[in-house]
Prior knowledge:
It is built from five helices and five strands; from the N terminus they run αααββαββαβ. The chain is an alpha+beta fold. α4 packs antiparallel against α5 (154-173).
Amino acid sequence: MNEVLRIVNRVLLGLIGLVLLVVGGSVLAVGLGAPSPGWWIHQGRDDVLLTVAERTRWRDQGWWWPVVFAVLAVLLVLALWWLTRSVQRHRLAVVNVDTGDDEGAALRARALEDSVAAEAGGLDGVDRVRVRLTGRRRTPRMRMGVRLEPDADPGRTLDRLTSETLAHARASVGMTSLPSEIRMRAVKSRPERVS
């Protein structure tokens, strides 16, 4: 479901961006002297978006400006909410653990992250590990950033991470699968000076 929302979000953002680009580009083109079709809102270079009569039409009505400002404020709040929801990464607070008695238990996600990071950090060739759980309580996803020491074997480290560390994490929360993304990078070592 989360993937569907992400796709819908990207499609909507793309369509809004395309509409704004076409409208803004056409207004700019007409302003620079390009011919415009008869149905377009701007008819020439000196044409304005709103005429004086259109701008002052509702000025004498007491309800007009409060409604305009309220609608603009709601649009601004919705746009800011959408922006923050699009930018933030959802970090789990709690993971549901299957205890086998049909009740389950709640495990703090931070505790599982710390446990996985400590176990992975103890592997040979691992300099530092950062773990983050995302997704939903019943279907968490793990993101792991691993910084390797200069002499580490990435293949061996990855094998141990998947066969030991992630297997222990899956077993601890009682899940058969725990989708994980592991990003590895090596620490740059300084060249040794030979004399």
